[in-house]
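On to our target:
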Amino acid sequence: MENGIYVRYLEEDPEKPDRWITTQPIRFDTLIGEIIVPEGFVTDFASVPTLFWGLFPPIGRHNRGSLLHDYWYDNRLGVAQWGEKEARRLADLEYWIRMDQAEPKRKLRNRLMYLACRWFARGWWVN
């Protein structure tokens, strides 16, 4: 278990380093209702360039928020109900909320990670 998340490191995929797979379904209560990340979902947690890992670690107490955010993006949750822009905004907002819950004393870092997500994750949303 990694920070309350049941995951396993995917050592067998050298093409995609730093990948983890859920080993059981994980339930979240979110701004849009219940979301269940299924067993077998693959994540890299926070997609942070290696250069910035000292300031913005890809793995940490924010893992649950990162896992939910990856699942939300991969499945474009909420697009049918609210459209592309609002669904993405809600995904990013949920990530920020979860970072603040996991590490309430790191408000500035959490805000910067949220802003980086808003600025740089658009490419993942549209792909």
Observations:
- The two ends are 30 Å apart (CA to CA).
- Residues 7-126 form one domain.
- The beta strands are 7-9, 20-22, 26-30, 33-37, 42-43.
